[in-house]
Design brief:
With 116 residues, the protein is α+β, with helices and mostly antiparallel strands. 26% of the residues lie in helices and 27% in strands.
Length: 116
């Protein structure tokens, strides 16, 4: 079972995963989260970006809104899976050790964090 998000850090990303059939649902979820919680919503990526194995949209937020936002996302995500991770400065650990999920966990492409 995926680890649930816990508020232990200052800054976070939530990555909402979607596909062609859930695109409109993901857009609405991200836009509503941005308006309700006054958080920064990134681009809607209809392609693979970074370590993410699905289309995604990133929400940047802080510990101040963590509890309310996470509860709201979980209640409104329907079938969408959401990766939540802190921003500690260590991308590999943020996306593995500190990663948590709303919904099902998904294997990430961690090779992008390996030194070239």
């Amino acid at each position: 079972m995926p680890q649930r998000p816990i508020n232990k850090y200052t800054h976070y990303h939530a990555h909402i995963y979607f596909n062609e059939s859930t695109l409109n649902q993901a857009i609405a979820l991200c836009e509503n989260a941005g308006e309700i919680f006054e958080v920064t919503v990134g681009q809607i990526h209809e392609k693979l970006v970074g370590p993410h194995p699905c289309w995604s949209c990133q929400i940047f937020f802080t510990s101040d809104v963590f509890e309310e936002l996470i509860s709201w996302l979980d209640a409104h995500r329907s079938s969408l899976n959401i990766l939540v991770h802190p921003l500690t400065g260590n991308n590999l650990e943020d996306h593995t050790v500190y990663a948590s999920w709303l919904g099902e966990s998904t294997k990430l492409n961690l090779s992008i964090f390996q030194a070239s």
